Amino acid sequence: MDNTIVICSNPETILCTPELNIALHSSLFIRMFLTSSDSFRDHLAKDPSIPKPSKDALLKKVMPGFIWVGELSTKELIKKRKGMGLFVFDTTDLDALSYTHSFIAGLFQDRFLYMDYPTRQLKYSDKSFTTFNIFTNNLNGF
Questions:
Q1: Is position 65 within any domain?
Q2: 49, 59, 95, 107: which one has the fewest Cβ atoms less than 10 Å from its Cβ?
Q3: What is the rounded distance in angstroms from the CA atom of residue 28 to the CA atom of residue 103?
């Protein structure tokens, strides 16, 4: 199943779309960090908490040498070093304010989200995904 999500310029609006199903006034922790795609891929490959279909879909995406990673979590999950959403952005994109240019892929609520570059539309496919171990290999950032 393949669907299209209309993308907006406001990150809060994107997170509150019916497709992502996050309540408007939810308490979320959003952790953004810069890392090398090699370190991130290594973490993904070794992380047993991410189901294979979701992991494989994300590992197959082409990524530049450095990426921005956004992790979504709740107060309860972050204490356990767990996340519930993962978004990857291209650090080398010159139009960094445009999600349609810099977004690479993400995992959230049983969905693998990705940018269809020819159409510049955010799309998703259903994959198995719940929570995951947050990335802690980045310069002892956690």
A1: yes
A2: 95
A3: 20
